[in-house]
């Protein structure tokens, strides 16, 4: 599979933006099948952009808004439009978008869309690339549940992607699929054929605060009780913010850390963003699931941990991506927006860590996301499990 990254800083005159992207792709040879993955800032008129792109591009496009894009050559960009083109003679692509999702319909909607997209493939699906919305209301679906639904529908195909982001308004994020735009659906791309994806997940939450409670009552991403206290009561006891309902911004640098046990006896450590509080019910809603019986801690994020984690991530992928004799020419990355905040004034630290280190002939595109989808190895078996993450840097190599 061959790939190329295109970028324009133009977001107002979209006919000009499209021409810039077309011009950058002129020397890139398209093969039998092509997929475009597009990221742009939240004030871009995507409908008009797609209309301009579709004049010359007849291949499928999926994508999402992103508060910041990561490019090897241009660096960290918080404005503009970026596109990754994937093209191959020996791979097949299909894309689609679900309708609006809620806790009642998400499994059926995702399952139906997966089955529909799979029908156009002549061989087994090897990779799912998917982007979704985030938990801004109590009826929204948690990131874990979206990933689990894709995993169940596909029979365990690896899932990579994440949650659309915006400029920290938490209400301007959008998802794209061809001419469709949504804020609360799931955009899905299936890839089959000659592809063997590799993944890296690096967690930047190494230290813990003196907060430790057992989750005694929860339902998916909604926690009702910690020990003998309501969730909100436990936060008040620890003198933490409980006066607002929308608390994502207040807790974005205070990740809740827990170990999730798998059915086979393995376990995976994850971090979780607290999003919403319901003082009347005493509950808290997270971006990801919090199973009953888990021990909930609060992590401490610092700049040095963020910098060290990204160095480790790229050292790992550079060492492994061609070690099996297969050439991989594409890196797709997601970094958590909380990592961006943790860097403070040193906001370019992540991109500068790998800028100029990408091997010749390898295209790389990344974004800051509100949550990351990526397989992660279990603590005991080393088996890879599709998981939803916060506070991570993830890499897909294909």
What does it look like?
By secondary structure, the chain is an alpha+beta fold. Helices cover 22% and strands 39% of the residues. Strands 14, 15, 16, 17, 18, 19, 20 and 21 form an eight-stranded antiparallel beta sheet that branches. It has a six-stranded mixed beta sheet with strand order 1-6-2-3-10-11, with helices on one face. It is globular and about 65 Å long. The N and C termini lie close together (8 Å). The mean pLDDT is 92.
Topology:
Elements: E1 2-8, H1 14-25, E2 33-40, H2 46-53, E3 61-65, E4 69-71, E5 75-77, E6 81-88, E7 91-97, H3 106-118, E8 125-132, H4 143-154, E9 159-163, E10 175-177, E11 180-182, E12 186-193, E13 198-203, E14 207-219, E15 222-226, E16 229-230, H5 231-237, H6 248-251, E17 256-261, E18 267-272, E19 274-278, E20 283-286, E21 295-300, H7 303-320, E22 330-336, H8 337-342, H9 349-354, E23 363-369, E24 371-377, E25 384-389, E26 392-397
Parallel strand pairs: 2-3, 8-9, 22-23
Antiparallel strand pairs: 1-6, 2-6, 3-10, 4-5, 4-23, 7-12, 8-12, 9-24, 10-11, 13-26, 14-15, 14-21, 15-16, 15-20, 17-18, 17-21, 19-20, 22-26, 24-25
Helix pairs in contact: 1-2, 3-4
Structural class: alpha+beta
Distance between the termini: 8 Å
Write down how many β-strands occur, each being a DSSP E stretch of 2 or more residues: 26
Multimer state: single chain
- Taking pLDDT < 50 over at least 5 consecutive residues as the criterion, the unreliable ranges are none
The value of Rg in angstroms is 20 Å
Q: Number of helical runs?
A: 9
The average pLDDT value, as a whole number, equals 92
> What share of the residues lie within helices?
10-25%
Q: How large is the share of residues in beta strands?
A: 35-45%
Shape: globular
- Biggest sheet layout: 8 strands, antiparallel
